């Protein structure tokens, strides 16, 4: 992958209006954290994000998701300056990338 290719198919990276926006991803991550699925195969992401948001609040999570999906920052370093553990950046980045993939798949269907 070249440096000019988007790492994630998020609208702010690709310019494609069919791709989910970073705000759509953030909204889904926060919604699922507030309303965790119980019997879903990805329910662990919801519970993990609920804990992360309870610990740090919504704004730092929003910042990490933007840094990961739009600014191409690695999960671990997207937490810089946020008084957040690097491992939580990995958790947020993972949940965000899964949510983006899900949103884009819905739009394809």
UniProtKB/TrEMBL annotation:
Pfam families: DUF8158
Domain DUF8158: 1-108
Start and end residues of each stretch annotated as Disordered: 1-22
Name of the protein described by the UniProt record: DUF8158 domain-containing protein
Origin organism lineage: Archaea, Methanobacteriati, Methanobacteriota, Stenosarchaea group, Halobacteria
């Amino acid at each position: 992958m070249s440096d000019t290719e988007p790492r994630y198919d998020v609208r702010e990276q690709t310019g494609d209006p069919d791709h989910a926006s970073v705000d759509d991803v953030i909204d889904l991550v926060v919604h699922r954290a507030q309303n965790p699925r119980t019997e879903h195969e990805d329910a662990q992401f919801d519970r993990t994000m609920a804990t992360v948001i309870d610990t740090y609040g919504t704004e730092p999570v929003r910042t990490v998701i933007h840094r990961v999906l739009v600014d191409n920052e690695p999960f671990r370093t997207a937490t810089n300056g946020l008084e957040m553990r690097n491992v939580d950046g990995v958790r947020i980045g993972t949940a965000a990338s899964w949510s983006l993939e899900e949103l884009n798949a819905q739009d394809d269907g």
